[in-house]
Amino acid sequence: MVRAFGLHPNGPRFEPEISHPPQNAMTEFEHDEIQDLIDAAIQKAMAKHNRNATIISACLGFSVLAFYTYILITIVHRIGSTVR
Fold first, then answer.
1. CA–CA distance, 26 with 22 (Å, rounded to integer)
2. What are the φ/ψ torsions at residue 20 (nearest 5 degrees)?
3. Contact, 9 vs 3, CB < 8 A?
4. Residue 9 in contact with residue 2, Cβ under 8 Å?
5. Number of H helices and number of E strands within the chain?
6. Which three-class secondary structure state does DSSP give residue 18?
7. pLDDT in tens, 50-69
8. What is the reported pLDDT for 30?
């Protein structure tokens, strides 16, 4: 019942205060640091793009191959049934 009101059975609990930088404080970066962050973001985006493109290409390639095989088998079957 004591916990329902936010109290701890062993007495009040005090959380340590976390110091935050002031809201108007700006962090200064050097040009090289910013360029490194941009390069890392581009590299990550390109890796994701390449992975997605590979998956899409594999699916399309498999679909085209399956369609080609189906058509080839159908043509061979029709040729075989008309020869007899």
1. 9
2. -110, 150
3. yes
4. yes
5. 1, 0
6. coil
7. 999 999 999 999 999 999 99
8. 87
Q: How far is CA 25 from CA 18, 19, 34, 37, in A?
A: 17, 13, 18, 21
Rounded to whole angstroms, the Cα distance separating 36 from 42 reads 10
For 31, the token pair is 């040009």
DSSP 8-state assignment for residue 2: T
Question: Which residue type is seen at 62?
Answer: F
Say which amino acid occupies 60. L
Span 19-57, pLDDT tens digits: 766 666 567 788 899 999 999 999 999 999 999 999 999
47: three-class secondary structure by DSSP: helix
Residue given tokens 């399956």 in the structure block? 66
Output the pLDDT for position 2: 47
